[in-house]
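Write out the 3D structure for:
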Amino acid sequence: MDLKQLAYFVRVAELGSFTRASIALDIAQPALSRQVRLLEVELHQNLLVRNGRGVTLTEAGSVLLEHSRGVLHQIERLREELSRVRGALSGRVAVGMPPSLSKRVAVPVTRAFRSRMPDAALSIIEGLSVTMQESLVSGRLDIALVYNATPSPDIDLVPLLDEALFLIQRSDDPAAGEPIALKDLARQPLVIPSRPNSIRMLVETELGKLGLHPEITLEIDGVPTILDLVADGAGRAVLTRNAVLTAANPSLFATRPIVSPQLQSRLSLALSSRRPSTGTQRAMLNLLEELVPQLLTTR
């Protein structure tokens, strides 16, 4: 049984599509399909049901997927153990993070990773917190930095820090810098991301508890564009202070604390509870636990 074929099969099964798997694996789709078919021929079993929407697992495929994950994990651990004999951690770690956070931490995290694990490979993938949780389950990500994660039996969460949320407006606007009560946030014209963005969901949930709804002026998915629109006078935003610090000119903005009650966004490390972590992944988890809070609390 070919290990590469097993790895291909696992990725197709986890992503539910030959097309998505071929992109993830950087292999032509016909070649990928042929390798999986050769595995089926060798095992004398149909492993996948192919349909117009993708693929689903047969009973035999489900059994093979469970065992294949274990086999591939053991192979990865073997490689790591052999690397450890010569004093190095190896392997690949895929880390997901929101774009606004990536702009703040990706460079120093990458620098620390390369210093501590020079024989390992790092992939940083940007995405929404909800999307990244799905990617952890499917195996596309090993670790993710997520905001306001919903508890799930498939995901283990390690809280890192709570970041206060602020009303962001132009620095020349009236009341710049003064606290604003949560109930008064409902009267502010907001430039805010679309659902299921974590801050959008938090604002709607907390205002909903007061029987209120946010006044959405524009739905924009991207912190840089949101800040550009706030600077242009299109409305106001709800963001962390760190998000504002990623702007080209942070002095254009005033941050107003949201109070009574305070709005906070919880940043957590997330990883799949389905598969054990490799030594390199655990080392990366420790690095993120150590470094990210420092980066976000240092002005």
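The longest strand covers residues 155-170.
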